Amino acid sequence: MGYTFPPAPQPVLETIDSEDLFPVRRVFCVGRNYAAHAREMGKDPDREPPFFFTKPGDAVTQATLIPYPPQTEDLHFEAELVVAIGVEGADIEETNAESHIWGYAVGCDLTRRDLQAEAKKMGRPWDMAKGFDASAVLGPLYPKDAPLVQGAIQLKLNDELRQSGDLSEMIWSVPEVIAYLSRYVTLMPGDLIMTGTPAGVGALGPDDSCTITIDGFAPLTFTMVA
Ligand code: MN
Predict the structure, then answer these.
(1) Using an 8 Å Cβ cutoff, are 199 and 159 in contact?
(2) What are phi and psi of 93, to 5 degrees?
């Protein structure tokens, strides 16, 4: 027996210091994980446990030219640290979370903010606001060599600084996010977790360029194309 049609290619991420490609499975994203960003979205950051949404694995791209998506007039950038899972686990203890991490990358959670605002107003899912094609723009994966608990995270739009925060400002740390998420799903090798964005999110249009930097990583630069 074969397939009714050829299976889709495996989404992958390039890795630093290796020819090997990281096979992407699922993409989980943390909502409102920096207090100042929660406030700019009109929420009280102190009263919420972490919540999650997802993007399809094949929404991940390492292209430098990103097609401006359809059905939006308010596409937003969100600079984020991305955690790559390398070891399966359910109900992971926070103190053991590091052992499930393969590595980290710089990422951008592209968001159709107008569709998200409409979904929030109507009490509808965020999928079409968050999970569209090429909505997870990522740099190469860095194998982990130490816990990542601090470091500047910044985004420049056309060379203008728009987002500037520090990983230490996350409301829920990387180990806490892994522990919490693994209560809901069994985390699997290939899963990615986008850990939320600092304040300063805003719109980017066709022809705009974004550069995201996180201490210790090469900058991630991409340009939107109409
Ligand atoms: Mn985000």
Answers:
(1) no
(2) -75, 140
**Which of the 8 DSSP states describes residue 189?**
T
Q: Structure pTM? A: 0.97
What's at 63, amino acid-wise? A
In this structure, are residues 110 and 116 in contact, taking their beta carbons and an 8 Å threshold?
no
Report residue 210 as tokens: 């974004």
- Residues near 151 by beta carbon (within 8 Å), at least 6 away in sequence: 166, 167, 168, 214, 215, 216
**Quick check: 58 and 195 in contact, CB under 8 A?**
no
pLDDT digits (tens, 9 = 90+) for 73-116: 999 999 999 999 999 999 999 999 999 999 999 999 999 999 99
3 C-alpha to ligand 1 centroid (Å): 36
CA of residue 130 to ligand 1 center, whole Å: 9
- CA distance from start to end of the chain: 42
Q: What type of residue sits at position 183? A: R
